[in-house]
């Protein structure tokens, strides 16, 4: 999908996320992109808004650490945000927990 619609990648991912995304190919690249989309949607819903005027895809950045765990590195909230993402076949599941 990303190869057919590169503007979609730029809409969803921040520049640093794009650099990480470009390290992957095939199914792993698709999982990364789908995971970031879902994590950012989950983040916005945890804020009580959903993606839109209050928070955009570019307002939230989630980078994998050295062990592959997603870490929220940029967000519109002042507290701590915890992220979790899992992939099973064609499914992605995400969870965001916001702390004050």
Q: Shape from CA axes?
A: globular
If strands are numbered along the chain, what order do they take across the biggest sheet?
1-2
The domain count comes to: 1
Count the DSSP helices. Answer: 3
Fraction of residues in helices?
25-40%
The level-1 CATH class: Alpha Beta
Rg is 13 Å
Main sheet overview: 2 strands, antiparallel
Amount of beta strand:
25-35%
Structural class: alpha+beta
- The CATH architecture can be given as Alpha-Beta Complex
Task: Give the full name of the CATH homologous superfamily.
Answer: 4'-phosphopantetheinyl transferase domain
User: Would you tell me the overall average pLDDT?
Assistant: 92
Distance between the termini: 37 Å
What is the string of SSEs from the N terminus onward?
Answer: HHHEEEE
Pfam families: ACPS
Domain 4'-phosphopantetheinyl transferase: 6-74
Protein name: Holo-(Acyl-carrier protein) synthase
InterPro entries: 4-PPantetheinyl_Trfase_dom, 4-PPantetheinyl_Trfase_dom_sf, ACPS, Ppantetheine-prot_Trfase_dom
Your description of this structure?
It holds the Pfam family ACPS. There is one protein chain. By secondary structure, the protein is α+β, with helices and mostly antiparallel strands. It has one domain (6-98): Alpha-Beta Complex (Ribosomal Protein L22, Chain A). The chain has helices at residues 6-12, 15-21, 26-46, and strands at residues 61-64, 70-74, 81-88, 91-98. The mean pLDDT is 92.
């Amino acid at each position: 999908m990303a190869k057919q619609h590169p503007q979609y990648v730029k809409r969803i991912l921040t520049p640093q996320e794009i650099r990480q995304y470009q390290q992957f190919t095939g199914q792993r690249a698709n999982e990364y992109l789908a995971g970031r989309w879902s994590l950012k949607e989950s983040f916005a819903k945890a804020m009580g808004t959903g993606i839109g005027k209050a928070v955009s895809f570019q307002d939230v950045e989630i980078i994998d650490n050295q062990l592959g765990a997603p870490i929220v590195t940029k967000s519109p909230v002042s507290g701590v945000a915890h992220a979790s993402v899992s992939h099973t076949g064609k499914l992605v599941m995400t969870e965001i927990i916001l702390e004050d």
